Amino acid sequence: MPKPEGYRKAIRVMQLAAKYRRPIITFIDTPGAYRIDAEERGQAEAIAYNLREMSRLSSPVISVSSAKAAARSIGIGVAHRVYIWRTLITASSRHANAPPLPLRR
Is the pLDDT reported for residue 80 higher than 90? Predict the structure, then answer.
């Protein structure tokens, strides 16, 4: 479960990486459900702040998201490149994981 404190910590680390001109890679595998206590601690404000600050970063940002979290993880999903990791699980599957697929714009 993402918490407001986690979003604030993530943006601090991303700003530090941008300061030293390092690329930023985010791995997103979060459920998108919100709890009332998270909203009381400022979840919406933390997500909005992350969106604004990530769009201003000078370092390249790459996001890799699991397919189940792709639509729900916008708080740390602002990036120059976004990849969706699909997991294929079937009884007859020889390979459990498919390679990441880039989103086409």
Answer: no
Question: What average pLDDT score do residues 60-85 get?
Answer: 75
Scanning the chain, the segments in alpha helix (DSSP H) are 4-19, 36-40, 43-56
Distance of CA 48 to the CA centre of its chain: 13
CA atoms within 13 A on the CB side of 6: 10
Residue 96 CB-density burial (10 A; 0-12 exposed, 13-18 middle, 19+ buried):
exposed
Question: pTM of this prediction?
Answer: 0.67
Over residues 30-40, the pLDDT tens digits come to 665 556 776 77
What is the DSSP pairing of strand 81-85 with strand 101-102? antiparallel
- The SS3 call for residue 16 is helix
Maximum pairwise Cα distance, the chain: 48
